[in-house]
């Protein structure tokens, strides 16, 4: 009885195995196709977007200044236990590489790195390098300390040892107003140097205010656009899009002209007798809000419009016919259906707003600058890329955390980009 | 704005970098605005015409960090740069500049002492001082104390963003004699005193960064008075028919210098250009357009005497002002910039 079933089973298995293999082959081919279709874009993004960002974030930990200019000094400093003053061989190695560095003129990087932790190290390093004799006067420790007293202080060598490490938390700590003291403990910086925590709070606050104002201005407009006949709606949409297509620099510059002390707005208000003294509308927070809301408004209107366009007017009509007041019909029927648009528009405006640079730089005062201003300052002016990268990293992480909270509360599905 | 724009910019920059690796034109970088317009007319264009070397010009707002990035990044796209005194000292020490060929310039003794340095030669003597619009203020300020007096002179104030000059002005406003300013700044208490004085007008401040801005701030009535560079004010009066006034007492004067960035591919042409700009016959043409002081001793005698009263090098103006202490700023610029940024951003 069993004998005939076995071949039947096996033949069945064989044929089903063939089918499975066929299926696998087809699936594999489909997968390959999908990968091949996505690959060019993925490669492009990886090379031109992800890799540069990763490299930039990595710079916030980079500590290569001293090790690259003084490799042997870095090595002996790493071997030293860090208690008190280092032993004589460390002084001797440092002295020989200091002399070589002075000749090769490559001490600038080391000087810059040390100055971040001890402000007078730049002049101390160069003065010592200039005055360094060929042979030590007794020990190198005595010679160096004689050339400049900083080399006799344990605090200097604690900084030297930190500068010799492969990576440094210095920049990330500084980006949140923290630093390491001589014993390596993390402490708050002095109040007259603490600035970045306030700047981060200010950055997020400005972005939130702009988002809320955009929502209140954009929502009624998007509603009107969505309920008008297409011919008129399209015409009005051009008015929304036209500024959207204009250069951001031009629009910001135009706001400076409009808002300035003797600009058209102040003159009109004065002519109408509404004010006697010109209002301060630019180079302060008012100017930043006005210009940023104007520039970011289309990013709110467009997703709202596209969501509202898809909502049938029948729902609100049905609600009112069932006895709801217009306000209740709006609140309980229309508004919930527009939440995906509000979510998308709000997120777009907020995330763009958090990274704003040129608009606050031009229409804001010194107290209205956002994180990006300092990223640009450290990138272009002081060339402290570690600090620029650290500020960028903290901003990125904070934004991602906010996005995560948003996704938890609203859900990513409850969002429609248009 | 968006990452797409950045990407596009990145690609464009990449293209530009590849292109600039080839031989490029001699590039001279100065401080923009009507000052650079005058330099183009008096120096760059005539030099091009005489030698057949094409000259491209760019402008910047200073900071030794910008020069570090250019030189240490390799492939610097500037050759000849006009730098401020402490940038000259810092950059020379760090090896950012070529050595100056003094034989090509006719020897060190041809120039005023402050214009002589192993890495650079003085371009101009310039003063940063109080300016205001005579068309708006009949009775103008006379000192830094007046500049701080917002009751007597209502309106906003403009100063260059950064600790240099700002701290000196604050101390003079607080009653420190010009001759005692750097002695006071040399102590922590003196620096605290300057920042405390700055607190008084912080809410009235508009900070400018480019040398062309103060004239615009004055012209638009945005500020009642501002610090500015003396010659730019004079040039604005001439070209735009303004009545901007200059307050010489309490001005801080300094020497700007020409340098050649290290490993410049146009080093020789750059040196030729610097020699051309240091020639008294050419230097004398600059003050009538922008009345800065000249650095070649022989040029002083050749300058149109009518311009002399509005030049920083006029003996009375020189005596009324204070010379910028380069050594102080070389030692302290980074520390005080950090403190200033925290103060201004709070």
TrEMBL record, chain A:
Residues 200-406 form the ABC transmembrane type-1 domain. The keyword Transmembrane helix applies. The keyword Transport applies. Residues 1-20 are annotated as: Disordered. Keywords: Cell membrane, Membrane, Transmembrane, Transmembrane helix, Transport. It is a multi-pass membrane protein. It is found in: Cell membrane. It comes from the Bacteria. GO terms for cellular component: plasma membrane. PROSITE patterns: ABC_TM1. GO terms for biological process: transmembrane transport. The chain crosses the membrane at residues 34-58, 199-223, 235-258, 286-307, 341-363, 383-406. Coiled coil: none annotated. Its main location: membrane. InterPro entries: MetI-like, MetI-like_sf. Belongs to the binding-protein-dependent transport system permease family. CysTW subfamily. This is ABC transporter permease.
UniProtKB/TrEMBL annotation, chain B:
GO terms for biological process: thiamine transport. InterPro entries: SBP. One of its GO terms (molecular function) is thiamine binding. It is found in: Periplasm. GO terms for cellular component: outer membrane-bounded periplasmic space. Pfam families: SBP_bac_8. Gene3D superfamilies: Periplasmic binding protein-like II. Keywords: Periplasm, Signal, Transport. Residues 1-21 form the signal peptide. It comes from the Bacteria. Belongs to the bacterial solute-binding protein 1 family. This is ABC transporter substrate-binding protein. The lineage of its organism: Bacteria, Pseudomonadati, Pseudomonadota, Alphaproteobacteria, Rhodospirillales.
């Amino acid at each position: 009885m069993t004998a005939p079933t076995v071949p039947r089973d096996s033949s069945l298995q064989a044929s089903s195995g063939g089918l499975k293999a066929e299926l696998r082959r087809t699936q594999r081919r489909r997968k390959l196709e999908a990968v091949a279709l996505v690959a060019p874009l993925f490669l492009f993004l990886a090379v031109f977007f992800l890799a540069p960002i990763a490299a930039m974030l990595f710079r916030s930990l980079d500590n290569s200044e001293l090790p690259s200019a003084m490799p042997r000094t870095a090595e002996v400093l790493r071997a030293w236990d860090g208690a008190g003053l280092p032993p004589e061989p460390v002084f001797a190695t440092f002295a020989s590489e200091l002399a070589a560095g002075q000749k090769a003129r490559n001490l600038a990087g080391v000087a810059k790195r040390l100055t971040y932790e001890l402000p007078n190290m730049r002049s101390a390093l160069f003065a010592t390098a200039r005055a360094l004799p060929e042979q030590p006067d007794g020990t190198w420790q005595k010679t160096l300390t004689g050339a400049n007293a900083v080399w006799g202080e344990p605090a200097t060598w604690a900084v030297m040892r930190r500068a010799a490490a492969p990576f440094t938390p210095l920049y990330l700590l500084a980006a949140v107003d923290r630093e390491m003291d001589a014993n390596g403990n993390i402490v708050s910086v002095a109040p007259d140097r603490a600035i970045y925590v306030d700047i981060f709070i200010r950055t997020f606050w400005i972005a939130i205010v702009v988002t809320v104002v955009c929502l209140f201005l954009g929502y009624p407009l998007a509603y009107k656009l969505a309920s008008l006949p297409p011919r008129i709606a399209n015409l009005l949409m051009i008015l929304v899009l036209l500024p959207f297509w204009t250069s951001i620099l031009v629009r910001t510059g135009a706001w400076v002209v409009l808002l300035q002390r003797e600009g058209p707005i102040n003159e009109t208000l004065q002519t109408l007798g509404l004010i006697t003294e010109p209002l301060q509308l630019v180079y302060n927070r008012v100017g930043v809000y006005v210009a940023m809301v104007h520039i970011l408004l289309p990013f709110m209107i467009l997703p709202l419009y596209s969501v509202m366009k898809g909502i049938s007017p029948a729902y609100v009509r049905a609600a009112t016919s069932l006895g709801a007041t217009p306000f209740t019909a709006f609140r309980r029927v229309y508004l919930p259906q527009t939440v995906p648009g509000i979510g998308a528009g709000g997120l777009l405006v907020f995330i763009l707003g958090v990274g704003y640079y040129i608009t606050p730089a031009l229409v804001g005062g010194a107290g209205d600058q956002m994180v990006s201003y300092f990223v640009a300052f450290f990138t272009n002016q002081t060339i402290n890329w570690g600090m620029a990268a650290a500020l960028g990293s903290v901003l990125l992480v904070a934004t991602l955390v906010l996005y995560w909270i948003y996704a938890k509360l609203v859900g990513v599905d409850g969002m429609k980009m248009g | 704005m968006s990452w797409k724009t950045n990407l596009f910019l990145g690609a464009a920059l990449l293209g530009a970098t590849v292109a600039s690796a080839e031989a490029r034109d001699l590039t001279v970088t100065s401080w923009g605005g009507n000052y650079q317009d005058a330099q183009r007319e008096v120096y760059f264009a005539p030099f091009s015409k005489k030698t057949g070397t094409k000259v491209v010009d760019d402008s910047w707002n200073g900071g030794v960090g910008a020069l570090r990035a250019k030189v240490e990044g390799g492939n610097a796209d500037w050759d000849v740069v006009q730098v401020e005194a402490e940038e000259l000292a810092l950059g020379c020490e760090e090896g950012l500049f070529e050595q100056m060929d003094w034989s090509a310039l006719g020897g060190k003794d041809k120039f005023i002492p402050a214009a002589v340095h192993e890495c650079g030669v003085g371009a101009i003597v310039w003063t940063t001082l109080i300016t205001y619009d005579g068309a708006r203020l009949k009775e103008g300020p006379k000192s830094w104390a007046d500049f701080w007096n917002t009751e007597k002179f209502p309106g906003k104030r403009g100063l260059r963003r950064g600790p240099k000059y700002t701290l000196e002005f604050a101390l003079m406003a607080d009653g420190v004699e010009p001759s005692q300013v750097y002695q006071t700044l040399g102590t922590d208490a003196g620096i605290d005193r300057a920042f405390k004085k700055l607190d008084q007008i912080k809410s009235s401040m508009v900070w400018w960064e480019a040398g062309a801005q103060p004239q615009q701030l004055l012209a638009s009535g945005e500020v009642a008075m501002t610090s500015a560079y003396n010659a730019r004010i004079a040039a604005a009066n001439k070209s735009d028919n303004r009545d901007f006034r200059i307050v010489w007492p309490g001005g801080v004067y300094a020497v700007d210098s020409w340098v050649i960035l290290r490993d410049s591919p146009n080093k020789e042409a750059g040196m030729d250009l610097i020699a051309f700009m240091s020639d008294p016959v050419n230097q004398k043409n600059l003050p009538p357009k922008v009345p800065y002081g000249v650095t070649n001793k022989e040029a002083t005698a050749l300058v149109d005497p009518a311009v002399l009263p509005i030049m920083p090098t006029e003996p009375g103006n020189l005596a009324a002002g204070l010379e910028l202490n380069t050594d102080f700023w070389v030692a302290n610029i980074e520390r005080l910039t950090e403190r200033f940024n925290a103060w201004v951003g709070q």
